[in-house]
UniProtKB/TrEMBL annotation:
Residues 55-178 form the D-alanyl-D-alanine carboxypeptidase-like core domain. It holds the Pfam family VanY. PANTHER family: D-ALANYL-D-ALANINE CARBOXYPEPTIDASE, PEPTIDOGLYCAN L-ALANYL-D-GLUTAMATE ENDOPEPTIDASE CWLK. CDD domains: LD-carboxypeptidase. This is M15 family metallopeptidase.
């Protein structure tokens, strides 16, 4: 899908949420095509909720390999989010709206539908035992240090470092797998 179509799709979803697309007009947000769900595989089950996290097959394989290597180094990592459909992303936005948070604020930590790496099936949110919240504090964990030193070997890149050009907050927990091709 071309960029213009992706932008139009995002604007349509925003209008459906009663959000003026102008709120993101000043942001140079990336747009991503959403993956077909039949390309996703079950990657991991949430130990607390039983929710199944899905990724594309190559991203899933890379995640499992990375997780095994982390474990061998004594570092436990697990998924707290993986593939999210456009409609699920819209649901997350509704939750923020119901909490009375303004779009200008929640769009610094939650991407508009169409601009989230999570619907590519290649992005993961990671946590580690002992870290209560998936916030900037994850950046102070041993798991984060391990990821910084090792994740690139498995194709994972931290998408939103401090001062990233897209106007997202620092997200040390959010990594995206990029094919080596
Ligand atoms: Zn994320």
């Amino acid at each position: 899908m071309r960029l213009a179509q992706l932008k139009a799709q995002t604007e349509q979803i925003l209008r459906g949420l009663h959000i003026d697309p102008a709120v993101i007009a000043h942001r140079t947000l990336p747009y991503f095509e959403d993956v077909s769900e039949h390309l996703l595989v079950e990657t991991e089950t949430d130990a607390d909720t039983g929710r199944i996290y899905r990724l594309t097959a190559p991203a899933s394989a890379a995640w499992h390999t990375m997780k095994q290597h982390a474990a061998a180094d004594g570092v436990a990592i697990y998924l707290v989010s993986a593939y999210r459909s456009l409609s699920y992303q819209a649901d997350l936005i509704r939750t923020k709206q119901h909490a009375g948070i303004a779009p200008e604020v929640f769009f610094t930590s939650l991407a508009p539908p169409g601009c989230s790496e999570h619907h590519t099936g290649c992005a993961v949110d990671i946590n580690t035992p002992g870290c209560d919240e998936v916030t900037g504090v994850f950046g102070e964990t041993a798991a984060f240090t391990w990821l910084q030193n090792n994740a690139a070997r498995f194709g994972f890149v931290m998408s939103f470092p401090q001062g990233n050009p897209w106007g997202f907050i620092y997200e040390p927990w959010h990594w995206c797998w990029h094919s080596n091709s």
